[in-house]
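Researcher: Structure prediction, please.
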Amino acid sequence: MKTDTIHNKMNLYYTCITAAPFNALIVLDPEGKLYYASLGENITNLKDILVKDFQHQKRVQLKPLSTLSNKSNTSITVDKFMQLLINPTVPQDIPVEIIFGTRLQRKVWQELMTIPVGEVSTYGEIATRLNLSGKHARVVGAGCGANRIAIVIPCHRAIGADKKLTGYRYGKDTKAHLLKQELGEKYSQICS
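Model: Predicted structure follows.
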């Protein structure tokens, strides 16, 4: 992470990716590491959410990606994320830097990243793998809701014990679309 030594802030760069059926707003560093990815239809709303999400990140200075002089590394990440929007089954080898969340939420996100493309896990199964006892499926669900790196940290692959698509930070329709793309014909058998 590079910081501006005068202000002791890390410069991160944001850009919008327009795609169908939804758009994305991503934040990355000059080396191309992804710090943030939000999904939605309206770019203005995504920018408003970005400001709200970063308001407590005092060490971060957000700048438009267009202000970065050398975009060679960031272009690779932007292209890879655009490919994921179009086809979430492509290899997800995008480097990630997590700056949000509690220690438990970060554990949940790390566990989510072990779920392969084309598979799902219930919140309870994820809780069990994290050695969380009792009714900690809700803790996993809350961790998913706090995730700020869509698709790459695949919260959409977490489903309810009854195989229902429960809440998703970016909307249930977006979750259903991503899973239909990833699961193909298996979608109707796995998710109800």
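Model: The first strand starts at residue 3 and ends at 4.
Researcher: Thanks, that helps.
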